């Protein structure tokens, strides 16, 4: 076998090894994927500025409610989300592949309360939206999103296809980091599925 044939053979072997490695990695990612807890309906919401916003738009979502009178648990949750916001920016996914959504618990909530949230927790509106869901759809939305096992406020993670994947209390540093990792995992899975369809 001459040198050229050896090089071609080696290249083919390396391609096969790379393909097998990619397949094994994809199977591993899928094997540790988060469970699907339910499916979120498609909702049209409205921003504080009156603009229409589709809650399902092909991005991963981190969703929670904005209370009119933010409890201690609520304040802790928003403090944790402020930290998550900064971590997602470092990952370069914030606002491009993942959005954080705060849904007003009351469609008639005073917008000054929303502004207080935004100022207190240094909200970057590029990837953290405060939204109003119409009253006739709000209860259904709450029933779909809320973690029925927990009485305290929780954050819900939704994948790019609208599947509800997990709930988080964000009571400590470890859980904030776990949510960040889960977000990045869902982003990788979604990107892989897009590449497979090409």
TrEMBL record:
Residues 169-196 form a coiled coil. Keywords: Coiled coil, Membrane, Transmembrane, Transmembrane helix. The chain crosses the membrane at residues 7-28. The keyword Cytoplasm does not apply. The keyword Transferase does not apply. InterPro entries: Thioredoxin-like_sf (IPR036249), Thioredoxin_domain (IPR013766). Residues 34-188 form the Thioredoxin domain. This is Thioredoxin domain-containing protein.
């Amino acid at each position: 076998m001459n040198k050229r044939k050896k090089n071609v053979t080696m290249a083919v072997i390396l391609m096969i090894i790379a393909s097998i490695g990619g397949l094994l990695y994809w199977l591993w990612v899928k094997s540790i994927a988060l469970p699907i807890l339910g499916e979120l309906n498609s909702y049209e919401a409205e921003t504080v500025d009156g603009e229409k916003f589709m809650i399902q738009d092909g991005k991963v979502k981190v969703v929670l409610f904005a209370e009119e009178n933010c409890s201690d648990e609520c304040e802790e949750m928003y403090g944790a989300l402020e930290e998550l916001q900064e971590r997602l920016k470092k990952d370069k996914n914030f606002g491009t592949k993942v959005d954080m959504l705060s849904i007003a618990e009351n469609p008639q909530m005073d917008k000054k309360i929303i502004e207080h949230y935004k100022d207190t927790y240094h909200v970057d509106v590029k990837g953290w939206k405060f939204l109003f869901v119409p009253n006739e759809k709000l209860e259904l939305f709450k029933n779909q999103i809320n973690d029925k096992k927990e009485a305290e406020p929780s954050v819900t993670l939704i994948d790019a296809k609208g599947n509800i994947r997990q709930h988080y209390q964000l009571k400590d540093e470890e859980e904030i980091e776990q949510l960040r990792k889960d977000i990045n995992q869902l982003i990788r899975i979604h990107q892989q599925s897009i590449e497979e369809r090409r």
